[in-house]
Design brief:
This protein is an all-beta fold. The chain has strands spanning 3-5, 12-17, 26-32, 41-48, 54-61, 67-74, 81-87, 95-102, 108-114. The protein has no helices and nine strands.
Length: 119
Amino acid sequence: MHVRRILGAAAALLLVAGATWAAPPTAAWTERHDGGGQFNDDGWCAVTDPLGHLVVAGESADGIGGVDLCVRKLDRLDGHQIWQARYVGYDAKDVTVADITWDLAGQLLVAGFIRGCVG
């Protein structure tokens, strides 16, 4: 399993393939996520599962209740969404991801935090 941190605005995702580490990567597929209403949708962390499917975590604003922590699993062959989970902060607080990883039992662990002042 490979862990990769996605830097900057990562609404568009690329799965890349290369014959060796020295070979320039080529795009196997792209997938663009738009949570709607032209609000921010950013991917910050990514891991692959044992089958090679990509799991991306970040934040997504739906225009209703602020920014939510969002986790999406994408098919390794063509990038279609396998599942998505959104976590909304309490009292309309914005929530974002800090990191994701797999535990020894094969469960996805997601760490997040409330953005801004809680008090």
